[in-house]
């Protein structure tokens, strides 16, 4: 009996659109995705908008939900918990992403039996994607690939992604703000999920719509999240770097002391000698902490992998109909 899912690119699909003050753009986004995926359920989740986003989304025919905790990460967590589907399309509500690319991304997810397809932004207008954001994205993408040893994506901060049911229901969703995209990427990389990337056009925001992204504040939050996830998921390399740093500084400070002692039999700088001993001990403690934490991380990763495998890939098991 065939194991292929009874699912087509136009069935059991949920389009998820987190929104905060997007009344100028949301009607067009809903209309574009209804045209691209005619039978998909389109869900708009409002995040305390002070404009007419909710009314416009209702009028456009979308299912409207609410999340009171402020921040995109909170909205994504609520949508992933509330909505059941075989395939999920996550997209921002500002009108910058190309709805016409969605069927191709869904096709790739289904045909290759993937867990995530990322829409890599390709812009032709400089004002659509500021040079500072381009540079920051490249730097953070390079850093993530370096820290986690995998360079499968060129745009880790894109808000346009397609997921399997298995990905969504196994995703812990702990981030609160725009760093949620980084968390989505790390979740896929750490569990070695099958993923792919598709180039998609990236355009200007709808007239009257303003960006909610704060370049420096949100960039720092993403950076700190990467470091926290690196310590949590790869503790041995993380604490190994601390060990190497402590020992390197100890060597630089300690070699002159040793040479002086060999020549004169005296240790003239006791404070420096105390610092060297402290750094050596701190290095050993870091190494031991890394080894212990690595064992814990391995057990946690195995548990996450087993839970991921227990979730049906497209929302139902063999012999069941898609929900």
**Low-pLDDT residue spans:** 1-6, 317-323
CATH class of the largest domain: Alpha Beta
Helix-and-strand structural type:
alpha/beta
Radius of gyration: 24 Å
In total, the number of strands is 7
Compressed to H and E, one letter per element, the order equals EHEHEHEHEHEHHEHHH
Can you summarize this structure?
This protein is α/β, with parallel strands linked by helices and 323 residues long. It is 51% helix and 13% strand.
Per-chain topology:
Blueprint: E1 13-19, H1 26-36, E2 41-46, H2 53-59, E3 63-66, H3 72-82, E4 87-90, H4 102-111, E5 116-123, H5 131-148, E6 161-164, H6 165-170, H7 180-190, E7 195-202, H8 215-233, H9 235-264, H10 270-310
Parallel strand pairs: 1-2, 1-4, 2-3, 5-7
Antiparallel strand pairs: 4-6, 5-6
Helix pairs in contact: 5-8, 7-8, 8-9, 9-10
Any overview of this molecule?
- This protein has 323 residues and is of the alpha/beta class.
- It folds into two domains: 13-233, Spore Coat Polysaccharide Biosynthesis Protein SpsA, Chain A; 235-309.
- It contains ten helices and seven strands.
- Strands 3-2-1-4-6-5-7 form a seven-stranded mixed beta sheet, with helices on both faces.
- Strand 1, helix 1 (26-36) and strand 2 form a beta-alpha-beta unit.
- Helix 5 runs parallel beside helix 8, helix 7 runs parallel beside helix 8 (215-233) and helix 8 (215-233) crosses helix 9.
- The longest helix has 41 residues, at 270-310.
């Amino acid at each position: 009996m065939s194991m292929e899912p009874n699912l087509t690119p136009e069935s059991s699909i949920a389009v998820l659109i987190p929104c905060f003050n997007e009344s100028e753009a949301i009607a067009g986004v809903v209309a574009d995705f209804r045209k691209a995926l005619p039978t998909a359920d389109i869900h708009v989740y409002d995040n305390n908008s002070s404009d007419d986003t909710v009314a416009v989304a209702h009028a456009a025919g979308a299912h409207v939900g609410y999340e009171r905790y402020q921040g995109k990460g909170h909205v994504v967590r609520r949508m992933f918990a509330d909505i059941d589907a075989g395939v999920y399309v996550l997209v921002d509500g500002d009108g910058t992403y190309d709805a016409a690319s969605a069927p191709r991304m869904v096709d790739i997810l289904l045909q290759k039996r993937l867990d995530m397809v990322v829409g890599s932004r390709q812009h032709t207008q400089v004002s659509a994607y500021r040079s500072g954001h381009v540079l920051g994205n490249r730097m953070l993408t390079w850093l993530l690939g370096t820290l986690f040893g995998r360079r499968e994506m060129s745009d880790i901060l894109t808000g346009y992604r397609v997921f399997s049911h298995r990905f969504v229901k196994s995703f812990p969703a702990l981030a609160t703000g725009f760093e949620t995209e980084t968390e989505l990427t790390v979740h896929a990389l750490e569990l070695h999920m099958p993923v792919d990337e598709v180039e998609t056009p990236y355009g200007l925001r709808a007239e009257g719509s303003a960006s909610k992204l704060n370049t420096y504040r949100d960039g720092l939050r993403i950076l700190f999240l990467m470091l926290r996830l690196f310590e949590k998921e790869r503790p041995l390399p993380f604490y190994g770097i601390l060990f190497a740093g402590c020992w390197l500084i100890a060597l630089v400070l300690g070699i002159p002391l040793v040479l002086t002692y060999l020549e004169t039999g005296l240790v003239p700088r006791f404070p420096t000698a105390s610092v060297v001993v402290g750094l050596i001990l701190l290095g050993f403690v870091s190494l031991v902490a890394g080894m212990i934490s690595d064992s814990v991380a391995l057990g946690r990763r195995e548990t996450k992998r087993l839970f991921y495998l227990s979730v049906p890939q497209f929302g139902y098991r063999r012999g069941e109909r898609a929900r």
